[in-house]
TrEMBL record:
The chain crosses the membrane at residues 6-27, 60-78, 631-653, 665-682. InterPro entries: Aerotolerance_reg_N, Class_I_gatase-like, Double_TM_dom, DUF4159. This is RNA-binding protein. Residues 705-922 form the DUF4159 domain. It comes from Kumtagia ephedrae. Residues 6-80 form the Aerotolerance regulator N-terminal domain. Keywords: Membrane, Transmembrane, Transmembrane helix. It comes from the Bacteria. CDD domains: A4_beta-galactosidase_middle_domain (cd03143).
Amino acid sequence: MSWLPLSFGLPAVLWGLLALPVIWWLLRLTPPRPQTELFPPLRILQKVLKREETPHQSPWWLTLLRLVMAALVIMALAEPVFNPRERVETGGSALALVIDNGWSSAADWDRRVATAERLIADAARTSTPVLLAFTAEKPNAEIGPFDAEAARDRLRAAEPRPIPTDRTAVYARVADALRSQPGAAVAVLADGLAAPGDDGAFATLFANHTGPVIWAVPERLSALGLTATENAVEGFTLTAIRPPGDAAPRQVTAGAFDDRGRRIADATLAFGLGETAAAGTMRVPFELRNDFASVAIDGEQQAAAVRVLDENAKRRRVGLISQSEADQAQPLLSPLYYIRNALQPFADLIETSNPDLAVAIPQLIEQNPAMIVLADVGTLPETAHARLVDWVRNGGTLVRFAGSKLAAAEPDTDLLPVRLRTGERALGGTLSWTEPQRVAEFPANGPFSDLSPPNEVTVMRQILAEPTPDIVERTWASLADGTPLVTGDRREDGTIVLFHITPQATWSNLPISGTFVEMLRRLVQLSRNQGTAAANAEGRIATLAPYRMIAANGALVPPTPDARPLAVRTDRAPVTIENPPGLYGTEEGLYAHNLLAADTRFEPLARPEIPAPVTELRYAFDESRDLKGPLVAAALALMVLDTLAVLWMSGAFARRTRRPATPPAGTAAVVLLALGLLAPFADRAAAQDAKPGDAEAVEAISVTRLAYVITGDNGIDAISRAGLSGLTRFLVDKTALEPGQPQGVDISRDELAFYPLIYWPIDPAAPMPSQDAIARVDAYMQQGGTVLFDTRDQYATSFADGAASPSTQRLRDILADLNVPPLEPVPADHVLTKAFYILPDFPGRYNGSPLWVEASLDASNADNRPVRTGDGVTPIIITANDLAGAWAVDENGDAMLPTVPNDPMQRAYALRAGVNIVMYMLTGNYKSDQVHVPALLERLGQ
């Protein structure tokens, strides 16, 4: 009966239903004992006559109840399943599960895990070993074979990654493992998107493969991705793409967010019928566009729909000044004509109509330009000269072009990168060439190092620089004879650049070439904070630490433990598990490492030619329901009803003073039959003398452990766990204490009394703890426990305006419901400063925040005790220095996060501070005893 959504795992057990007539006969033969009433005059006859009488038959409803109870037990033993799923053939020597867990799998990852669990469950029925490989994990990740339970645990621990898949390397490893498993089944759970090298990867995987193949891809590809953004003249433009299979018209909305996650602009992108790309524009002022930190497509919970922005995405204001009178009369001869046309696509240009430089230059500086261009400007007025020098030293970029006025002016060492010779060098003149000179290879130490020298550009006139020992270092472009074409130099925080030719096509044809546009673009990029995080003014490539990462669901999160510094090159660095997409660098300079390149296109994955039988599988949750438990529960409920009915018929409820009658043989037979049928479940219901949780409690108190509060944010919890693990290692190495592994606790339900110290990282994005949870923490602190609150916001930008940071405000909200004693920064004579190491302060990943503890009530009495604390230990400690971030180490013992500032000794002092805190928690004011004073004074050199 295919229309019935019910199946049985052991259908042979259903033959037991044929025993129901026998059970009916037994029940009718031995009905339950009737209720008896004794007439007092006949009591003597009762003693004489001992014959037991039984009724002719039991009530029909009681017989029916017992038959139904027996039928339920038989059906339960047959393992019934409602809405059974179709089983896939996974037979063979092994099952190889190859799962794509790249960025495109994040949207329906739970569905893919459920599909893989069904395959593992089918393999478990035949005890088939399982090879489990993910295409977005580390190359050396273990792939098995595993037993079904271990494979299931690894599957549940896996998660999608915000990176592309690497099928080539993973498929090769699986193919090598399958050589020792002939006839194994291979299940490919793909994301449906093609990747470079797929043909070779599938050819390697299925070469000489004869076992069954299971192929699963999404039924519909609907993922969207952002490939390009540009801060253009008319607005901020962005481009989105989609797979070609999603051909219906579609309209989506994208939002722009600042560095605090606030939405400040929107754009609508419309895909036409059959279109795979769409563009949109956010038409907002460029001052607001410069605040964009990221853009994201609404409703897309995956990394490709998010694009982070760095300084390169911010449009800059450039001021232009020229003393030429031909600007209006002859535009093509104007010194600013070619400069203006070259800069206009990627900069906002400002000019002044006042010919007086003493007025024009201050007017430009007041508009806060990132770069000022002086086209053939000679001697500057003294006031304008001073303002311009200060502007450059404070971070401005000054670009000057040569000309007749500059050649005739007195040398200006303050606003020129090199010392110039008087006059100019022209073709056919003194110190001239016999023929025009071409541009040589751009030096590797300049910002033009990645440009190709223009073969069509020639130079006929130039201003020469005086030879100096550092002329080579200051040369950013030169001619074939070695003379400088462009020179540059740093002046404190600013940069000065000089083109030794005019900006018109009179001295050279460089201004009418495409190279001129690219050179000015590089200089505009250089003007952004005087260099991006990727390269400084000399063009040296930097290695940048991870700052904020894009998670698989598109959220911006702290760096993961797998993230490593990014070596930025001139070409686009690949996105890998060690360099996931996100921002790299520091707050002073960030580099955006995005997932999709500008030329990325989504292509559907085509099923390759497979020389083996293929079964197509659909991604879906397991909607089948095992009915064994409900049927057993129903049988037990009927058994209870049967017992109550027998007691009622025996008069147990009518005369409570009488001893209940013994159940008749019929009822005993049914009970024995039910117990025999339920024998396989006896081990599951075995009584336990121990109470639930006793084993965990014994394990928790058998060894000293440090604990941390689980916030729900995987990134913060991972750093807390790694930080306490690093501190535990340091305690084992430096002290006699050997703590166990740190334990994460849920303050709303876990027992807190097992831990002497609980580290609580404050996350403003986490939900506010409930009143019951705060009450549990309050009780823990009153009973002798200590909570270390860490806001991790020492350098929070919100302190600049005097307001509390979000983390500090959340901590205040938590402490408002706690019985917090008066607090004070750790005094210089506190036990914490000498509990193990002698420490003046307590730094973490950051330095500068005081460590707050309970204030001493008898601080003035310093004669009787060399410390200020009482006999107790402070129940609360507060810091903002991110202690766990400084303690955090990976599996190899290497530090995971850099200190700020990057000082190795700061991490050492942070670990020592952790040792002092732990020792103080365990020993109290032991170090305050007078017996320790001589030793402490000797260590202090007093």
